[in-house]
């Protein structure tokens, strides 16, 4: 027997019973993005490898160890996108979009060759927001408040904490890096293997270590806030003032550095304690130098990404998933004449009652077997059409989720019946 082919490790199928929650989450996010005036852009999944090397940074874990990179038939090095910002910046430069201020969003899969675990996959899904042309902290605040609006719509606000920090400018970080490296070298005997590896390449990431044995030593490390210049301080103070006026509580986390080289000034994360170690569900910040670094003109920019996989997991954990959106009506057909008329009747019901979810039984079978399928479908009502009903242009309507009586009625009365019973309003 031929061995069956299975999904790649760290990548998975989202089955029909799972997708309604994903659709609900995506619909809520899209709705809030529309309210705030963000426009969708659709981007390639595959980009030139050089794009990520130049934007994310050669010495980051993503570029060094996690990217899915391959040579195509022309010998070009291509990479499945590990994040969305670089591709969005590339598109904005290439398509000449940066002659105006922009609020953009995109959605889709990202790819990183990490160790799979609950809440962390090699193929994962994000909705990203990117803004260009806004210098002040007001846009930083807007993005954060937009995400809060999403949490409110989803019922998650009480379960998420906002953490913020400022990374300052590249020059301020360089000065801070020297002081941090000197401090860490002086405490080299307390560094774990991963931190010793990062010491010469990306020492700021050591601050984000989850190793409890290093916690006390890192708590005494130099603070980036002490190296910020007047402009960086004023920007961060402006951000916190906007958040304070909007009644949004937050925690200033001096160890929040993010893992990508392009960030500057504002960085933030929304975190939860309900998902164990995979607690970050949304993260982002400002990247004012990235557009110029990738060949465009100097353009202030700020954005964030929502991790859909973890948000779905959080909604499931907190039992905040909406009820399964099965059909409202299951059309049961008995007899040859009924089966011949069933599809046309279902179309007429859908046309007369827009938004009504109608599932037509196909493939024949006894009344008993059809009613079992109707019950398993989750439908509120069964509409029964037999040969006698075909002859009389009637149907029988049977409630499946209540103790109501089944009733016969003309087919022409179905729309009015369902408008009243399911939508609670008169037919328009």
What's the arrangement of secondary structure elements?
Layout: H1 19-35, E1 39-40, E2 46-48, H2 49-55, H3 61-66, E3 68-71, E4 77-80, H4 85-94, E5 102-111, E6 123-132, H5 137-154, E7 161-166, H6 170-186, H7 193-199, H8 215-219, H9 230-245, E8 251-252, E9 264-271, E10 280-286, H10 290-293, E11 301-307, H11 308-317, E12 329-334, H12 336-352, E13 358-360, H13 367-376, E14 381-386, H14 387-392, E15 394-399, E16 407-410, H15 414-423
Helix pairs in contact: 1-5, 5-9
Q: How large is the share of residues in beta strands?
A: 15-25%
Order of strands in the sheet with most strands: 1-5-6-11-10-9-7-8
What is the first-to-last residue Cα distance?
59 Å
Shape: elongated
Biggest sheet, open or closed, and with what strands and sense?
Answer: 8 strands, mixed
Structural key phrases:
16 strands, about 425 residues, 5-stranded mixed beta sheet, 15 helices, alpha+beta, about 20% strand, single chain
Structural write-up:
With 428 residues, the chain is α+β, with helices and mostly antiparallel strands. The protein has 15 helices and 16 strands. The chain has helices at 19-35, 49-55, 61-66, 85-94, 137-154, 170-186, 193-199, 215-219, 230-245, 290-293, 308-317, 336-352, 367-376, 387-392, 414-423; strands at 39-40, 46-48, 68-71, 77-80, 102-111, 123-132, 161-166, 251-252, 264-271, 280-286, 301-307, 329-334, 358-360, 381-386, 394-399, 407-410. The strands form three sheets. An eight-stranded mixed β-sheet has the order 1-5-6-11-10-9-7-8. Helix 5 (137-154) packs parallel to helix 9.
């Amino acid at each position: 027997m031929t061995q069956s082919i299975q999904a790649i490790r760290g990548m998975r199928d989202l089955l029909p019973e799972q997708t309604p929650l994903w659709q609900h989450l995506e619909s809520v996010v899209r709705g809030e993005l529309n309210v705030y005036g963000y426009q969708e852009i659709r981007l390639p999944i595959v980009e030139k490898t050089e794009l990520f090397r130049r934007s994310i940074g050669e010495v980051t874990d993503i570029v060094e160890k996690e990217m899915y990179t391959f040579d195509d038939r022309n010998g070009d090095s291509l990479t499945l996108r590990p994040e969305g910002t670089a591709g969005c910046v590339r598109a904005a430069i290439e398509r000449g979009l940066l002659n105006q201020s922009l609020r953009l969003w995109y959605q889709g899969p990202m790819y990183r060759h990490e160790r799979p675990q609950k809440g962390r996959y090699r193929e994962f899904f994000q909705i990203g927001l990117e803004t260009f042309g806004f210098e002040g902290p007001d846009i930083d605040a807007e993005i954060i408040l937009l995400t809060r609006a999403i949490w409110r719509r989803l019922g998650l606000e009480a379960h998420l904490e906002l953490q913020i920090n400022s990374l300052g400018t590249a020059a301020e970080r360089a000065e801070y890096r020297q002081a941090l490296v000197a401090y860490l070298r002086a405490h080299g005997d307390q560094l774990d293997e991963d931190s010793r590896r990062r010491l010469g390449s990306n020492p700021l990431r050591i601050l984000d270590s989850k190793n409890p044995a290093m916690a006390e030593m890192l708590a005494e490390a130099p603070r980036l806030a002490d190296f910020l210049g007047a402009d960086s301080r004023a920007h961060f103070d402006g951000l916190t003032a906007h958040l304070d006026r909007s009644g949004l509580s937050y925690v200033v986390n001096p160890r929040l550095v993010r893992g990508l080289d392009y960030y500057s000034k504002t960085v933030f994360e929304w975190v939860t304690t309900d998902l164990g170690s995979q607690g970050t569900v949304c993260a982002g910040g400002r990247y004012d130098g990235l557009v110029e670094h990738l060949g465009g003109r100097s353009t202030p920019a700020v954005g964030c990404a929502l991790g859909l996989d973890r948000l779905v997991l959080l909604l499931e954990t907190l039992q905040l998933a909406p009820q399964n959106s099965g059909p409202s009506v299951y059309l049961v057909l008995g007899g040859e004449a009924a089966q011949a008329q069933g599809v046309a009747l279902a179309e007429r019901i859908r046309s007369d009652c827009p938004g009504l979810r109608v599932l037509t039984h196909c493939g024949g079978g006894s009344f008993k077997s059809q009613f079992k399928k109707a019950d398993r479908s989750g439908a509120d009502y069964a509409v029964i059409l037999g040969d006698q009903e075909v002859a009389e242009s009637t149907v029988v309507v049977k409630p499946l989720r209540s103790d109501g009586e089944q009733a016969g009625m003309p087919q022409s009365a179905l729309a009015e019946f369902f408008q009243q019973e399911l939508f609670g309003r008169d037919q328009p």
